[in-house]
Amino acid sequence: MHPSITLPSPAKLNLFLHIVGKRPDGYHELQTLFQFLDYGDELTFTLTPDSPDIRLAQPIPGVADEDNLIIRAARALAARAGKPLPGVTISIDKRLPMGGGLGGGSSNAATTLVGLNWLWQLNLGEDELAEIGLGLGADVPVFVRGRAAFAEGVGEKLTPAEPPEDWFVVLKPDCDINTGKIFSHEGLTRDTPKITIRPAFEGDASRYRNDCEDVVQKLYPEVRQGLEWLSQFGPARLTGTGACIFGRFPTESAARIIWESKPSGITGFVAKGVNYSPLHQKLTELT
Ligand SMILES: C[C@](O)(CO)[C@H](O)COP(=O)(O)OP(=O)(O)OC[C@H]1O[C@@H](n2ccc(N)nc2=O)[C@H](O)[C@@H]1O
Ligand SMILES: Nc1ncnc2c1ncn2[C@@H]1O[C@H](COP(=O)(O)OP(=O)(O)OP(=O)(O)O)[C@@H](O)[C@H]1O
């Protein structure tokens, strides 16, 4: 039996998302609150000592292996290690909708960096892994660090936060939203005044908005209808640039009652918000 490890790759929510400016390189400066969900993909890493190849057991439909953030993360880590390493085969149990604002690809990249650092026994520190992660995507560092956080810059300046660990109904309206298209939309507001938060942010995130929500609702009636339906029952928001939306509930049973009554034809799930990533939780249990 070759050494093997199965690790969670959780989703994130942007409990709020403010666009506070635009950088000279065209990227938008954000202030956002990230919380993890106890729901996500699962990756299994199996070392193949007889072959140096880094490969996927099965491709993700619509994503070329070369572009897959899992392969890109594993290669970036191997390059940083700078020594011969055993090959690895990675299989994916994909549960998160792609391009849904739940950070699935970024989370897969982070689980790969953290998991292979462990399996290859590289002992790189969290700062170094987060730096490699930032080269793969702005949302990767928060998944590498594994703590809910208030994020600034493009998402890389992180202050740990402890929002309430509520339950969420997460719905995926039936549309695909391109992040670049939303960020380049002329109707997007880019001047929300910067806020300062108390260290640890224990406040009520639903006081704050997602600045992408107006544009996304205008372009995608499915999102508007979903938000209208969900907000009857409590605070509801878009995560990232969508398409997923979430409603917040104090208990699992309250969330499940609403989930059961969702309109037909809409997919999604019920999950708990967690401030410590299930990935890091699992690794703690293993060591
Ligand atoms: C909106 C968030 O989901 C918040 O968590 C993320 O910042 C999005 O991060 P991401 O999915 O890694 O985004 P990318 O795939 O890198 O971005 C796609 C495109 O959106 C635009 N973009 C993205 C992030 C950002 N802060 N400003 C931008 O202007 C850029 O044109 C970029 O080329
Ligand atoms: N392992 C992967 N899993 C999912 N998507 C991937 C992966 N590797 C590359 N991608 C590409 O990344 C794109 C964005 O996927 P992802 O699921 O991260 O979006 P998202 O949930 O909108 O993320 P964000 O909230 O960061 O915008 C996909 O459309 C796909 O082309």
From TrEMBL:
It catalyses: 4-CDP-2-C-methyl-D-erythritol + ATP = 4-CDP-2-C-methyl-D-erythritol 2-phosphate + ADP + H(+). Residues 68-146 form the GHMP kinase N-terminal domain. Keywords: ATP-binding, Isoprene biosynthesis, Kinase, Nucleotide-binding, Transferase. GO terms for molecular function: 4-(cytidine 5'-diphospho)-2-C-methyl-D-erythritol kinase activity; ATP binding. Its EC number is 2.7.1.148. Catalyzes the phosphorylation of the position 2 hydroxy group of 4-diphosphocytidyl-2C-methyl-D-erythritol. PANTHER family: 4-DIPHOSPHOCYTIDYL-2-C-METHYL-D-ERYTHRITOL KINASE, CHLOROPLASTIC. NCBIfam families: ispE. This is 4-diphosphocytidyl-2-C-methyl-D-erythritol kinase. It comes from Marinobacter persicus.
